[in-house]
Design brief:
Helix content of chain B: 40-55%
Number of strands of chain B: 4
CATH class of the largest domain in chain A: Alpha Beta
Structural class of chain B: alpha+beta
Oligomer: heterodimer
Largest interface: A-B, 55 and 51 residues
Number of domains of chain A: 2
Number of strands of chain A: 4
Shape of chain A: elongated
Radius of gyration of chain B: 24 Å
Number of domains of chain B: 2
CATH architecture of the largest domain in chain A: Roll
Shape of chain B: elongated
Largest sheet of chain B: 4 strands, antiparallel
CATH topology of the largest domain in chain B: Nuclear Transport Factor 2, Chain: A
Strand content of chain A: 25-35%
Order of helices and strands of chain A: HHHHEEEE
Structural class of chain A: alpha+beta
Strand order of the largest sheet of chain B: 1-2-3-4
Helix content of chain A: 40-55%
Order of helices and strands of chain B: HHHHEEEE
Strand content of chain B: 25-35%
CATH topology of the largest domain in chain A: Nuclear Transport Factor 2, Chain: A
């Protein structure tokens, strides 16, 4: 296969071991980092990609993304969520989005953001958002 | 199999392992870039630290001295359903135009003994805590 038969046995075995080691290293690292991040084993406090994406979807009123990243509710709940998002004022402009930090306990993780918003008529708001994630999925937004 | 041959095979496997880990580290993008600007973090405000300490020490008197009834009710809602607070962690704070948001994560148990974490944010104007989210 791939002309490996033409190589000396030692080189062939070494090449196979190199490829096998690379595969084990890549997949193992991917699995371990994802598993550790989602399980909260190390009490990780780094920003979760799911929370980050959810915040951006929330601020940019991307109802489809919110449905995918948020709690897996029934079809009516998801339709209500989409309606809520679409009824929000369209001229709200996020000025800054700052990740304040987070903490985990088991599979539950809390990620907190501070957001500056310029609403219609120049109204300014400085708001916190606290996202609760379970198993890497946003379950609650306050 | 000679020991030299075994050593070569083992070394190539370990080399591949290291290359695999390095390849993942290079290709993993981590958290997507933030398209918005961020505010610089500030130190934990003293008034907020006092409230966090009172919560961690289960000290209702200190809390009632530091916060008015409205803010206490907001705090109660923010940490619900935590009943027994075991830990309070300050995670970060930002300031804008004299207003500070100081974020905390409280860990503890609910009335049915479940371990949970709850996040809450103290809102300060100057040195005064004016609200809780």
């Amino acid at each position: 296969m791939f002309g490996l038969n033409r190589l000396p046995p030692l080189v062939r075995t070494a090449t196979m071991m190199l490829l096998l080691g690379g595969l084990v290293g890549y997949v193992g690292t991917a699995f371990t980092t994802t598993f550790v991040a989602d399980s909260g084993i190390l009490g990780n406090s780094g920003e979760s990609n799911a929370a980050h994406k959810y915040m951006l979807a929330l601020l940019q009123r991307q109802s489809e993304s919110l449905s995918q990243l948020g709690p897996s509710g029934d079809v009516v709940s998801r339709a209500l969520q989409q309606q809520n998002v679409s009824q929000q004022p369209q001229d709200v402009k996020p000025l800054t989005v700052t990740y304040l930090g987070g903490a985990s306990s088991g599979r539950v993780s809390v990620q907190i953001y501070a957001v500056e918003i310029q609403a219609s008529g120049g109204q300014y708001q400085f708001l916190p958002f606290s996202l609760t994630l379970i198993g890497g999925r946003v379950q609650r937004v306050e | 199999m000679s020991s030299a041959r075994a050593a070569v095979i083992l070394a190539t496997f370990l080399g591949g392992l290291v290359l695999g880990v390095a390849a993942y580290a290079i290709t993993d993008k981590g958290v997507d870039a933030n398209p918005y600007a961020s505010l610089p973090k500030v130190a934990e405000p003293a008034a907020a630290a006092d409230v966090a300490r009172a919560l961690e020490n289960d000290d209702p008197k200190a809390l009632s001295d530091q916060l008015d009834m409205t803010v206490l009710q907001q705090l109660q809602t923010a940490i619900d359903p935590l009943l027994d607070i075991r830990s309070i962690k300050f995670v970060g704070a930002v300031e804008k135009n004299g207003r500070v948001l100081a974020a905390y994560v409280a860990g503890g148990r609910t009335s049915d003994g479940t371990d949970i974490v709850r996040g809450f944010v103290l809102r300060l104007t100057g040195d005064q805590i004016v609200g809780v989210n």
